[in-house]
Amino acid sequence: MLLLVPRHVLQPMDGNNQQNLTPTPKYNKHLSSGFTLVELIVVLAGLGILASLAIPNFLKYLEQAKIDQAKSLLNSAAAECLQMYRSEGNVQV
Fold first, then answer.
1. Closest-CA residue to 79 (of 64, 66, 91)
2. Rounded to two decimals, what is the model's pTM?
């Protein structure tokens, strides 16, 4: 495995100037355990783009559901009126 680390970051393991060099961290491990601000902003931007694509389709779906519900209510009301007309001969409005 090849590590692409600048030479000034590497220190010899045994104090001699040999080839077995290990990278030394420049920062504390406790501070580097989370996400960076740039990573969080990129994720939020991606979610915003997905939401901007999904919300119009969802609103169209809600509108179509309301139309279908109104059609269903009208059909059931018409069926009740027709049934009442057939059984009694007149329709009460």
1. 91
2. 0.49
